[in-house]
Structures are given as structure tokens and as C-alpha cells.
Amino acid sequence: MHVLVTDAAGAVGRLVARQLIAAGHTVSGIARYRHPALDAGVDFVCASLRDPVLLELTAEADAVIHLAPVDTSAPGGAGLNGLAHVSNAASRAGARLLFVSQAAGSPELYQQAEALVAGCWAPNLVIRIAPPVGRHLDWMVCRTVATLLRSRVSAQPMRVLHLDDLVRFLVLALNTDRNGVVDLATPDAANLVTAWRLLQSADPRLRTHRIRRWADLLPQMDTAAAQEDWKFQYGWQATEAIVDTGRGLVGRRLDRGGATIGSGQLALPIEPVPRSFPRYGATVNSVGPTARGGIRRPDRSAVSGIQRNRSHRSTTRTADPDDIGRPDGRAACRRSGHGSNPGTWRRGCPGVGEQGHRGIRSSPYVGVSANIVAASQLPGWDEQAITRRTLGTINRPRACCRLGDPRWPAEHSGRSPRWS
């Protein structure tokens, strides 16, 4: 599915884009500025929502997730005019519109925004979220922390929403065709006293005087619909989400546009390093092994064992990489290595280890698969069936092993197998 994300360079936009790409969706984004931590797989355009490029991006999308703030005082805020442009573009393209609204915000502003989305011609879903929290301290979480620390301490229950649960619900909502309004909040609640103490214990010197407050920290929400109708399972309880917010506050300062790195303690990393892709036409050098037919093969033969074992130079040979690459071949090599001669075999496959060539002194890997040798030792293995499966209708050669079939002793005493 092709998804367009507005304000893709914001904190929530980057999280949503990363999760959508991981889920297999194609993501395009639009914002005024690009963020260095934005996933490189996003088809990003630097433009405002008034730019005509919005119509082109929406025409290619199956769904639009509007994350640009309606509040113009927030960073990247597009206001009601930006929401009107997005609703118009989605209606023209017939794309589904998902709008994230703030239940704790100003009722006059967000009720008007929800009515604007519900009245557009496009299929739409309004997601009303509780005061957001989490270690990703964007402008919304900073407002929640500032409002909580400046509120009157009481035992009233408070519902919050971790940003991780918001991102997970957005990915879930794309795979359904449900429309309407849904409220997102933790199924349980934490009282204001507990939340205040948890945040104060993270950093007692937090300054919140420059940050705006939510209009209603305790909004009325219907939390049963998300669990009963949507079957959504929250990953964070209320107290756990507030504790995780305190982890992100360590070593950071609150700001109107989001928390910044402060002095003192080391701040906890909250965002992974973005992936880097080579320039077009550049040569890509990989340190991993090469592959043939979907099988990972060693990039070079292990010749160190041959050089060290000079007495068996004429009979020792590296195992066939195709045999070693198959799962059953690796299991056979491990079984033979651990059972026949534990004194000279290393862990894992004998064809790749440092002294793996010394496991069977007269090596059976001369024109024969490892499965043929292991068939006589592993229970349930049939040498004839393996030969027919490997060679098909071709007549089996007179001797798969150049020196004849190996004759294994009844007990494994650490000696190498003798050849008849």
C-alpha cells in the first residue's frame, strides 16, 4: 500500500514512516524541512501543504496519514487551512484519510478540525488520543509533562497514551476499512500524585515555564471501542508509560518544539541511526559471503587445513560449498564431526573450520555429497533414497566414493574411519 505521511520529518512522522516501511508499505512524505534521522526509504518532498505537489503525492497514495499539527503554535503546524488542503486532495484522489486529533487540546480548535475531516468526501478515520507520553519527547509529550508538573497534585485518575501505541495503531488501522472516530488511551489509569512523583524523580530541575499547557489534562474518552471493536492490545500501561517518559527526560531540557540535549547526565538514545545508501552507480562492497541459488556460500575455500596437514595433501579436499550450504548438509556435517573423531574436529561444519579437513583423513568429499556419508550413521536416513533424490533418473555410479564406501567401526573410539 502507498501511504502519504504529512509532517513526515516530525518525531511521530519518523516513527510512523519507519514502521510502515518495516510492514512492507511504500511511504512518501511531505514537510517543510527534512530531518537527518528520517528513513532513507521515504520518498520525501520539502514543501508546504499549500503547494500543488500535495495533489500529485495524494493522487499516487492509497491512504493519507495527517500528522501535521493543527495548532499553529506547534512546530510544523499547518493550522486548519493545511488540514483543508489535505482533505481536499484526499477527496479528489479517493484516498483514505487518517487524522490524529488531541483529546486534551482546545475543544474549539480540535472539534472544528474533526468536523472538517468528517465532512470531506474521502473515507476518513479520526483518532482522538489521550495526553501523549513516552521517551520520544516531541512537542506533544513536552506539553503533557509541563501540564502535569504544573497541575494541582491530587489523586484523580489520569489516562495517557504512549507514542509507540499510537504508531502501532496507525499501522493496524491501515489494514482495515473502518471509518468514524476512535479514542486511544491506556486501559488503566495512574493518579496525578504518582505521575508527578515519577517525573520529578527523573529530573527535579525541570523547567516548564516556557511551554504551553493542554486545555484539559483529564478528557472524557471512550476506551472500550479500541479494545472491543478494533481488538487492539496496548503495549504500555499508564504507569509504565510515565516511567518511560522519565527515562527520556534524563539529560534533556524541555522546550516548546521538543526536548533538547542538556548538560549533566548522559541522555538516553531514543532514535536509531538512519540507514545510508550508496550513491547511484557506486560499487557496493559486501563483507558477507556470496550466494548462488539462494544458498549462502563461503567466499573462499578453507585451505589452511591443507597447508598444515602436509601428510594428507594428496587425499584431503575442501567440502563442496553447495553441500555445506544446505541445512541438511550442515546438520550432517555437525553430526559426523561430533560423533566420529572429536579430537580433530572443530565445532560446526568440518569443511569450513580451521582443522575441519582432518576429520576424515581419507576425505569422502571426493565426488560425493556429505549426505551419502552421513546416511549410514543418522537414524532414518536411506542412502538409496538420497541418491535417487540427488541424481534423479540418472544411473548411480559404481562407487560414489573414489576409495569405496567408508566402513565405520561399531564404537566411536576417536579413530578415523577405515576404508575397505
Order the strands across the largest sheet as they lie in space.
Answer: 3-2-1-4-5-6-10
- The first-level CATH class of the largest domain is given as Alpha Beta
Helix content: 25-40%
Main sheet: strands, sense, barrel: 7 strands, parallel
What is the beta-strand fraction?
Answer: 5-15%
**Residue-averaged pLDDT, rounded?**
78
Task: Output the number of helix runs.
Answer: 14
Q: At the third CATH level, what is the topology name of the largest domain? A: Rossmann fold
Keywords:
single chain, 2 domains, seven-stranded parallel β-sheet, two-stranded parallel sheet, 14 helices, 32% helix, 14% strand, disordered C terminus
Structure description:
This protein has 420 residues and is of the alpha/beta class. It has 2 domains: 2-261, Rossmann fold; 310-419, no CATH class. 32% of the residues lie in helices and 14% in strands. The strands form 6 sheets. Strands 3-2-1-4-5-6-10 form a 7-stranded parallel beta sheet, sandwiched between helices. The protein has a two-stranded parallel ribbon with strand order 7-9. α3 runs parallel beside α4 and α7 (192-202) packs parallel to α9 (238-249). The longest helix has 15 residues, at 79-93. The termini are far apart. This is NAD dependent epimerase/dehydratase family protein. Pfam families: Epimerase. Residues 284-356 are annotated as: Disordered.
Short description, anyone?
The protein contains 14 helices and 17 strands. It is an alpha/beta fold and 420 residues long. The strands form six sheets. A seven-stranded parallel β-sheet has the order 3-2-1-4-5-6-10, with helices on both faces. A two-stranded parallel ribbon has the order 7-9. Strands 8-11 form a two-stranded antiparallel ribbon.
